[in-house]
Amino acid sequence: MTDLRTPLDPVSAAIADSGLVAILRAPTAGGFSVVADVLVSAGITALEVTLTSQGALAAIAALRRQLPPGAIIGAGTVLTPDDARAAVDAGASFLVSPVLDTLAGQSVPCYPGAYTPTEVYRAHLAGAPMVKLFPAGGLTPAYLKDLRGPLPHVRILPTGGINLDDITAWLTAGASAVGLGGPLVGDAATGGSLTALAARAKRAVDAVAQARS
């Protein structure tokens, strides 16, 4: 079990410090390289490559070689132990799942998905350094604030349906970091504007700074 008084592992601490996880999801992972460069240049250094993207494992390995040492590359949509092992073998530094009970026994930090207080607490008891609150789009920052009333020691990573304008509210409500997919990455991984991506990334980084000022 971990709590807010327990020092985080270095990967989880870096994610919490940054306040953001960029979720890279597309039909294929071929565009992730240029997207990652833009995001890291803007200050978003935790990137989650979803395994539903064709070529995701190769992309994880390539991004580890491509990006500077401060960038953290993880795998998302990890649904089975085989998924988890393959992602770690490819170089993933953290694993994220939309569900519970798929990430036990891994050698890197794992953030299982949960929705209800019971699920969140189960994930915490299993040793998750952060719990992915998913899908957060159907919830509100007020839900997180209420959840953390009885569970102040659980670190929460809301993900799914969070827009750029929501970042500050979620962090202010007590989120350790937030996960952002489409509202941040948009169509940049499939040929969309990288200039627009850079502008969205700046908005996200500025929102974190505002929440923590």
Automatic annotation (TrEMBL):
Keywords: Carbohydrate metabolism, Lyase. The keyword Mitochondrion does not apply. Signal peptide: none annotated. It holds the Pfam family Aldolase. GO terms for molecular function: lyase activity. The keyword Lyase applies. InterPro entries: Aldlse_KDPG_KHG, Aldolase_TIM. Pathway: Carbohydrate acid metabolism. Belongs to the KHG/KDPG aldolase family. Homotrimer. This is 2-dehydro-3-deoxyphosphogluconate aldolase.
